[in-house]
Queue: 4 jobs
Job 1
Amino acid sequence: MKLHVIETGNFKLDGGAMFGVVPKSLWQRTNPADSKNLCDWAMRCLLIEDGDRLMLVDTGIGEKQDENFLRHYYLHGDLTLDLSLRAKGFSRNDITDIFLTHLHFDHCGGAIEWGDTERTYLQPAFKNAKFWSNEQHWLWATEPNAREKASFLKENILPLQESGQLNFITKEAQLTRNIFENIDVFFADGHTESQMIPIIDYKSHKIAFMADLLPSVGHIPLPYVMGYDTRPLLTMDEKKLFLNKCADEEIIMFLEHDSVNQCCTVKHTEKGVRLDKTLLLSDL
C-alpha cells in the first residue's frame, strides 16, 4: 500500500465559526485570523493506492461553483485536485473509489463536474469510480435540516445517485473490512449525521483521516468545537473517545483542514489529551 497527499487548494472561513464558544484570544494562538476574522484552511485529500484499488478520500470543493458562491470562501493556492493527482502519476480516470466522509460542499464538491462547456448538465468527475457514502448520511443530506441546508448542495449530491455509481457503507464494523480490506470506519454524528472517519492500516501504523471530527491541531482540546456542528455536546463526547483511542494506540491523525500541519499524534497529559507532535505523511 502507498498513501499520497492530494492538496486541492485552500479557502477561508470565519474563525469564530470554526471554534464556536472558544474566545478568539485562545484560538488565534494556533489559527491566526486576518483583518476580516478569517482563518486559512486546507482542503487536503488522501489517495490510497492498494493493489488494483486507487481510492481518493474526499475531493475538495471542485471547480463548478460560480463566482457568486466562491467569493464567500476566498479560494487560493496554486494546487488543484488534477494537478496534485498528476504530480503523483495519476488522473481522474485511474480512480476506482471515492470515499466521501460526508457531503458538505468542501468535501464532495470535486466529485461532480459540468458535462459540457455550455454548463447544461452535471456528471461525476470520476467516470470509473464507485462513490461511497452511507444510507443515514445520504438521507440527512438529501432532506437537509435548516442549519445545514447551505452546506448540502443538490448539484453535488443528486448527480451521484443518477449516475448509478453511488454505493453505501453499512455501520456494522464486521462488514466494513469486507469492502475495504485495510480500512475500518468510525462513524461520528456530532458534526453531521454519520460522518465517516476511515482508519487505514499503513505499514506498521494506523492513519485516521480526521475530516471534520478534528479540523486542525488547534481543535484538540475538547471544548474547541466548530459552530457548524449540529450536536456540539456529542462532538465533545466523540472527540474524547477518539482522541483517547489515538493516544492509547498511537494512531496518526491525517488533518484535512489544517493549513500548516499534515498529520499529528496526541498523548495523555494532566490536562487531558494534548498534541504530541506534528509530522508529514512522507515521514512514515
Note: The chain has a mean pLDDT of 95.
Job 2
Amino acid sequence: MKRVFLEAHNLKNKFSGFGQFNYHLIKGMATQDVSNLKITLNVSDLKALKAEFGSTFRYKKYKSITRHKPFRIKKRYDLWHCLNQNIKVEPFYKTPYLLTVHDIHFVTEGSEGLQAKLRAQFEKKLKRATAITYISEFAKKDTHANFEVPNVPEYVIYNGNTITDTSVPKNFNPIVQPKQPYLFSIGDFSERKNFISLVAMLQFLPEYNLVLAGNNRSLYGDRLRTMVSEYNLEERVFLPGKIADTEKKFYLKNCEAFVFPSLREGFGIPPIEAMRFGKPVFLSNNTSLPEIGGEQSFYWEQYDPEYMAHVLTRGMNTFYEHQHDYETWYIARAKSFNWEATAKQYLDVYHTILR
C-alpha cells in the first residue's frame, strides 16, 4: 500500500484561504475510496481531525522545527503533497513530490528583499516537483510567465464551493446589520483586495449600504476607516471584522449583490459562495476572476468610483429584468465547483504519479 504525505499544517488557521483549501480538500477525500492509500495528514490539531475523520487518515503532529533543513521529516513516503506554494516544511529525502500552486502574488507584493527570498524558495519547489497542480488556468499562466517551469506533468484543478447548505437559522441576527439594502464583500483587508474602491463608489450609490467582512486590523484597515470618516459614510459602511460561517451565510443571503474588486486572485472562492445564493456578482476583470465568474457576472474594467457605480446600477437593472434566469445560472455554476469532484481529481493525480 502506497504512503502519501499531505503537508496540511495550514489547517491551524482553518478560516484563512489556505486553511479552507486544506480542510475542504481533506473532507472531500474522506468521501472517496482511499482504502488503497495510507494518507498521513501533517497537522497541529490531531484531536479534532481524528474526531471528524477517524481511521480514514493517519496523523502526524506538526512541529515548526521541521521547517529547518536538519530537522526535516525523515520518514520515507511514496508521495509528498505540498498543499501550497509558500510552505517551508519539505521532505528530508528526495521523494515524488506534488506541488499545488494557488498564486504567485509574492512576485509583486512586499519588499524587494522579501520578493527575492520567496522567489528563491519557490524555484526550489519547482525543481523538486514531480508534478504540479494549479487552482486556475490563470495561476498556471502566471507561473509560466514569471518562472522557468520544469517539464513535468501539470494539471489545473478548480477548488470547490465551500457552501453547500444555504440555510440560516430563522431567528439569527448578526451584531452588525444594516437597515437599508446593502452590498457585501469579504476578505483580508489588504491593497490587493481593493476595498477602498468600494467605499469611494458608495458616494454615488445613496440607495445602498456596504458590509465589508474580514480581518480589518491592519494598516490598510486603518486607511479604509479614515476614508469612511472623510466621506461621512460612518452610518453606511459596516465592518464586522472576522465572521463565522453562519454570519457569512446571513450576509450572502440578504445582500443585494456581492462586490469583489480584487486586483489579483489565484482563484477567488467568495464569488462562488455568493453565486450559491443566486446573488448578482460584480468582479474585477483581471487575473483569474473572469475565469471563475463566467459570462453572467458583471465586471469592472477600471476603478473610477463614478464608473464603478454606473456598472453596478446598470448590472442590477439587468439582473432584475431577468432575475429568474440569472439566479438559476448562478446557482448551477456554484454547484459545478464541487469539493468531492476536486478531491477525486487530486486522488487521480496521486495514482498517476504513484504508477
Note: The longest strand covers residues 37-43.
Job 3
Amino acid sequence: MTKADIDAAFVEFERVQKSYDGVTLVVKDLNLSLPKGEFLTMLGPSGSGKTTCLMMLAGFETATHGEIRLAGRPINNIPPHKRGIGMVFQNYALFPHMSVAENLAFPLEVRKLDKAEREAKVMRALDMVQMGKFGGRRPAQLSGGQQQRVALARALVFEPELVLMDEPLGALDKQLREHMQFEIKRIADRLGITVVYVTHDQTEALTMSDRVAVFDDGRIQQLATPDELYERPLNSFVAQFIGENNTLTGVVTEIKGETCNVKLDSGDIIDAKPVNVTKVGDRTKVSIRPERVEFNKARLRPDAHTLKAEVLEFIYMGDIFRTRLRVAGHDDFVVKTRNASDQVRLQPGTTIDIGWMPEDCRALDA
C-alpha cells in the first residue's frame, strides 16, 4: 500500500487475520483500502472469508491479528454501536412489535435526537426508498421487498458515512432483486456514501460495484473493476467464478513476449496470452469467454484460431442463442451469440468451424 493510498483511504484493513479456533485462519493477512464514496463488493463462495471481513468491520467479530481503521482511526476496540456504521442484513432484522416509522426512529433515539428532528429524518429516509406512505404499518404487513426497503432506510436514517450490507437481496425473487440492485446503487451514488457489500451472486457484484474483491480460501484472489475482472481474470478461480467461461487444458510449448503456444491435450496447438504461466512445460487452463467465440470466420482476423467443433445443443434464450459444443475433447464448450436475423440455427450432430482471437484467450494456472 503506497502512502497516497493510505492518505486517501477511508476504510483500511492492514494485515488482518481471523481464526475461530486458534489454528485455522478463515481470513489470511488481508490488506485492503477503500476511498470515501466507493461501492466495494466482497464476492466469493461460502466459507471464503468475505462475511467474516464484513463482521470484523462492523464490530461483531474481533480480528485475531492486524488493524482495521475508519477515516484513519483504529476501530478494533470500539464497540459496534459506537462505530457510526449503517448495517443491512439479509433477514431485515426489523423489530416486529414496532411500526415502520418506529423502527427507523430507534437508531435516532439511541443517538438522543429530539422528536421533531427524528420525525423529519424518518420521513426523509422513507421517501428515499419510496416507502413514505407506510410509516404506520408493522413489518408483518409488508412484502419482502418492502421490508428490505425499510431495512435500507433504517441503515441510512442517521446519515452514516459507511453502510455495510450482508447478502441484503438474498431472500427476494429474481425480478425484485434486479430492481433493488439498481435502486441501492442509485441511492448510494446520490448520497455519496461508502458501501461494503457482501454477496455470492456474481451478477449482483458486476452490476453494482465500483470495485469487486473476489475471495477464496481467506484471501483476495483479485481486486478490480467489474470489467477488469471479467475481461482479464488473473487466475483460473476468478475466471471460473466470474461469469461463464470455457477452459481447454494443455501444456505450454513456447513463450514469446505477449504470446505463448499451448499444445492442448487433444493435440491441437493454439496461441494464448500468458497470464500466470512462466515457463515451457507448465500445465495450463486456457480461458475463453463464450461471447468471444465466432462461428462466422469472416468476422475474424487472419491470425485467428479455428478449431473443429461438434454441435451438441442449441438453445434459444430470447436475446441470445446458447450453443454447447464438443471442442478438443471437452463436451462443455459454450458459445453465446446475439439473436440476429442472420443467425443460423445449428442442428445437434453438425460439425462446424469455430474461431477466436489470440488476445481473447488467456493461459491461466492449471
Note: Residues 1-6 have pLDDT under 50 and may be disordered.
Job 4
Amino acid sequence: MNFKYTISPVLAVLIWGANTVVNKLAANVIDPAAISFYRWLLAGVLLGLFFAKPVWRQRRQIWPFVPKLFVLGMLGMVLYQCLAYIAAQTTTATNMGIVVSLVPLLAVGLSVLLLGEAATVGGVVGGVLSLLGLIYLLSHGQPAALLSHGPVLGDCLMLVASLAYASYSVLLKRWAIPLVNWHSLVVQIWTVIPVLFVYYLSQSAPPLTMAGLPLVLYAGIPASVIAPFLWMLGISKLGPGRTTALMNLLPVFTVLIAVLFLGETLQTYHVIGGGVTLLGVVLAQYLKRPLGRRPVVV
C-alpha cells in the first residue's frame, strides 16, 4: 500500500469520527430533527452548486434510478443519521463509535442474505466474536446485568442505525447504479430532503440557534461534502478493498476525540468489548475462505 495515498481516506475517517462527537454535542443543543434537516439541506445546496447542471443534463438517464436512489437516501441519510442523533441523547460518543464499527461486519452478513455470497470462516467467527464483544461493551463488563436491566436505548438505536447503513452499502453494491458517485449522492440528498422537512415539521422543532449553527456547519460541510470527496479520492488511488479497511480506524478516532474533547472516561469494558468487537470485524474482512471448504490433500 502506498502510504501517501492513505492520507485522504484517513482524514475522511477522522472527520467522520469527529462527527460522531458532534452528534453527542448536538444532543443538548439542537433537536435531532432540526440538525438532520439543516445538515442535508446545506450539503444539498453546496453540492448542487457544482453538480446540478450535469445532473439536469442527464435527467433522462437518471430518472429510472430515482426510486432506488430514494431508498438509498432513506437508509443512509434519514434512518442512519436521524437515529444516530436520537441515540446520542442516551448513550456516549465512545459507545456510538464502537457500535458503528460493526457496519462492515453487518454488511458481510447482509451480502450473504441479499447478494447470495458464500458465508466465510471470517464472517462466522468474526460475527461471534463481535457479538460477544458487543454484549460485554453494552453490559459495561457485566453480561448478566444485561439480561436483568436490558441495554441502553441509545445503544440499541445506534445498532439499528448501523444496520441501516450496512443495508445502504450492500444495496449500493447490488444495484450498481451506473452514475457518477457525486451525481448519485446529489440525487439521494434531494430526494430525501422533503422527508427530512416533514420530519422536522412533525417534531415542532425550534428554529436553528447560534449555539447549534457550528454543529450544523460541521455536519453539513466537512462530514457531508469534504469527507466523501477525500474518501472517493482514496478509492480511486487505493481501490475499494484497501480503502474500506481504513474504516476500522473510525472507533479509534471517535474514542480518542470523545476522551479529549468531551471528557468521556475510557473504561476497561470499552477496551475489552470494543477490542473484541473490532477484532471480529477485521476477521470478517480478511478471512475470506468459504465456510465448509475442505483443504485439498496432495
Note: DSSP finds 15 helices and no strands in the chain.
